[in-house]
Design brief:
Elements (H helix, E strand, L loop, with lengths): L2 H11 L13 H10 L9 H12 L12
Length: 69
């Protein structure tokens, strides 16, 4: 099994892996979180939402105005 698939499976099955971080993510951390939580919706996953916000704050991502994450 591909290592990303293993991380995704763990991210989806471990509730603590969806918690928001205590401190904001760096850009590198946020990119990794976005990859691991690709199957999550940011509206339901505080960790992905924090990663998304870190990328927006860094100017690396412009959120869609027509589709909810």
């Amino acid at each position: 099994m591909h290592s990303l698939a293993i991380h995704q499976l763990a991210a989806m099955s471990d509730e603590t892996s969806h918690k928001a971080p205590a401190v904001p993510f760096t850009v590198d951390q946020a990119q990794r979180v976005m990859q691991f939580h690709v199957a999550c919706r940011a509206i339901r996953c505080p960790r992905k939402a924090a990663a998304l916000q870190a990328l927006v704050d860094a100017g690396r991502l412009v959120p869609s105005t027509t589709h909810a994450r």
